[in-house]
Amino acid sequence: MRPYYLIREIMFKFDAEKVHNFILGIGSLLGKTWLTKRILRKFFVYKNKMLNIEVLGIKFENPIGLAAGFDKNAVLTDVLPNVGFGFTEVGSITAEKCEGNKKPRLFRLTEDKALLVRLGLPSEGAVKIANKLKDKKFNFPVGINIAKTNDVNIIGEKAINDYVRSIRLFKDIGDYITINLSCPNIPDKDAFSNPILLAKLLKEVKKVVDKPILLKIALDLNSKNYDGIIRVAKKYAFVKGFVISNLSTKRDKLRTDKNILNEIGNGGGISGKPAKDKSNELIKYFYKKTKGKYIIIGCGGVFNAEDAYEKIKLGASLVQLITGMIYEGPGLIKEINKGLVELMKRDSYKNIKEAVGVG
Known about the structure:
Strand content: 15-25%
Low-confidence stretches: none
Largest sheet: 8 strands, parallel, barrel
Oligomer: single chain
Distance between the termini: 33 Å
CATH superfamily: Aldolase class I
Number of helices: 12
């Protein structure tokens, strides 16, 4: 048994969000001194030139990143390169400060190796986070994930302005911006997955930013919705790709006891293993539909090197995770990167880029 599993047994006895906040505090402290960072690197970092990849003109030491949703207020950017990540995506960041939904709002579904997330986009707000990051020099690529403020009164043109306010603040911070088109934990969860609204949003975004824009895609839409998103994206050259995907809202195939789910209540999105297959199907769909001309970041159900490699072979240039790390520990990133090198050697690839889309 891994030492981490003993730690996990203890942590899993406490409220998931309280443990999450505790880890954020520890991670922030560990990132403050060169000594702690050096110690972390010794244990958690694996480097190999076969993992180096350039995407959107940005150089990544490896393709494994921390997905948006873990470091919402950008407190871990100093420590994450030292535990093996090749990049991170902070946020989701909203224009206005938001407390999110009522607690408890984060639940472990251990039978499914999943999380049920009902946070509702809590955020310190774009101004505070931008001020925190504006003078920082990052040691690896950083993406900025922007969402609409969770407020039922912010709809239509107000919603577009809300997005644009945040994007304007981060136009010179980080390496790329991801526009989160959906959140399963707010009332208008899929509003900007509508191609008409998306087109209006991108028309305004075009006026304020000249860095690469990615679109984070909902998992439970139909092919007509996805085709509409692709059609709109093609009209705006600054849209360079897609993050696939967001959380799943479907519970029909979960192994978790129905009584536990009833106690948790309705609503929320599910991450981890239950999202893996649908995420992979969607990566494959977008890669084929766009003929590989757009960058894809694959996200959903990555627990080992094989999971990451599968997403890469289906069309993802980069891969993100959160839930796998929570269940398997911070050493997972190193294991995935080492495993990817072994898988590439098996398949006679000299660099990870050669594997993108071959499946």
